[in-house]
Amino acid sequence: MVINTILSAISYNYPPEKLNVYLSDDGGSEFTFYALFEASNFSKYWIPFCKKFNVEPRNPEAYFAHVINDNADLSQELLDIKKKYEDMKNRIESAITKGRISKEIRDKHKGFSEWNVDVTKQNHHQSIVQIIIDGKDRNAVDKEGCQLPTLVYMAREKRPGWPHNFKAGAINALIRVSSEISNGSIILKLDCDMYSNNADAIREALCFFMDEKRGHEFAFVQHPHWFYNITKNDLYSYYNHVIHKLELAGISGYDAALYSGTGCFHRRESLSGGKYSKDYIGNKDIETKKNDQRSVHELEEASKVLANCSYEKNTQWGKEMGLVYGCAVEDIVTGLTIQCRGWKSMYYNPERKAFLGVAPTTLDIALVQFKRWSEGMFQIFLSKYCPFIYGHGKIKLGAQMSYCVSLLWAPMSLPTLYYVIVPPLCLFHGISLFPKASSLWFIPFAYVFIAKNVYSLFEALSCGSTPKIWWNSQRMLIIKRTTAFFFAFIDVIIKQLRLSQTAFVITAKVVTEDVSKRYEQEIMEFGSSSVMFTILGTLAMLNLFCLVGGATSKMVVLREFGALENLISQVFLCGMMVLINLPVYEALFFRKDNGCLPFSVMFKSIVLASVACLIMPIIQ
């Protein structure tokens, strides 16, 4: 996955002498270095192939999976390049399986000597900077004799007792190292699981930075997050067309596009703490250290110092320079601080998606990711970086409010939980919360509900969604708010009370074959006894019990049809929740595969829902 991302970035349609690709390996693994070394050799064949046949996408794995071999000239070369790729892939996998790099391979590059007795653990090793391809070396050419881009491996120093500040710390170290080696004016930041899907993405982004009227104002150009493994009906609502095509574009209208971490082109000066002023002219030339006469070894040694643990001590890195530390969503808060220094930002959603990533294929992993995002964003709202406080007088009020739409995901769990718990329980015990259907006061409630959902559906359809995709998004909205967002809210409150510390949770990307098969069939993957699933199951059973015990009992057993007029709103809400939770009922009672909910979750859900139904009369 990482190597395919590198190969897609190193083969852009852009002058190679101006293209410098860096890999930050926070694990400090010699296998990652070896894989990058193999990729550097493969790139000598891959780049000419891409340019000759105008290949898209330039991720080899993705290209070979979808290429239609109907070109006679392409046919033989395609087979040759695919064989080279498979050979490279097999060599890397073989080395990982054996657990060692052979001496024959080690002798091919001096960089392997970095992994010696001093490199023992992922969190205890020296700085490693290796220039694998030196773009200034006239001998660094592909098979056609064309110059290759610079390719650099970096693993920042890690020592016990020194804070490494997670992903933000790694990116800041990479910013410093790249400034020493190439110092390009524009930086593209890509996560390892997201590859370039448009070979002209750099040129398109530069159009914003080099615009004669406003180019000098822009700090970054953010592309939306699209995913290549989304199911037909977007099972876990990761595509969310409305957010990508309307909401994020609307925020950009205030010159305050959200920085969302990956797929973003940054002006180096803005990331390095520079402030924008009306007198700022900007440098439209993409200048690099092309006249630097230092040797590769000298550049590597100078760069290692910048990646040391102690380098940031008593500096503004993590505060006014680079990505901001202390938050699980360092990208959002960093974008805000950049905008508050006077810079503007642009959201760009081209017709051809510039970058594609991999979305979680299980509900458990998806909820963990949403929890981390919502937790980090709520932390920002409660910190000094709250847009209404930190951004007051610096960014527009509309931008401040737009930020808060995302920052308040976590507390939105509370009203949602109220509506999925209280109305059903009141229905179960015959307590009316809304006006009866024959009352004029019923009209406003009905209007709000119908108008909101009709408009939401229309909005989704206008953005290219389908009714099924919209329905899945409504289901996931309820699931996220009642589980991930709720736990995020609790965790943030606990941290505000200084009872725990911020932790960075990494989401897994590798899944088994049976999980992938169920995902392709759009079957929700549960498969664990997570406390989130216990809550999900409990709420599903609660609404089912209340619908059956409340509405059905009055109609069938007590024959109190008139009483239902007072409870019609609650019957409808409860019925909607039952429909939304159909996949949960299937996982609880009918499915027998590994993705179903365990018996322990079913037992706890039934018990908790039953207790909730019985305990309300006692409270009354």
From TrEMBL:
Binding site for UDP-alpha-D-glucose: D26
Residues given in the record as Mn(2+) binding sites: K167, D191
Bilayer disposition of the protein: Multi-pass membrane protein
Subcellular localization(s) per the UniProt record: Endomembrane system
Residue numbers annotated as active site: D26, D331
Predominant place of localization: membrane
Keyword terms: Cell wall biogenesis/degradation, Coiled coil, Glycosyltransferase, Membrane, Transferase, Transmembrane, Transmembrane helix
Coiled coil: 71-98
Pfam families: Cellulose_synt (PF03552)
Tagged with keyword Membrane: yes
Superkingdom, taxonomy of origin: Eukaryota
GO annotation, cellular component aspect: endomembrane system; membrane
One GO term (biological process): cell wall organization
Membrane spanning residue stretches: 407-428, 440-458, 478-494, 531-552, 567-589, 601-619
Recorded GO MF terms: cellulose synthase (UDP-forming) activity
Protein name: Cellulose synthase-like protein E6
Origin species: Acer negundo (Box elder)
Lineage of origin: Eukaryota, Viridiplantae, Streptophyta, Embryophyta, Tracheophyta
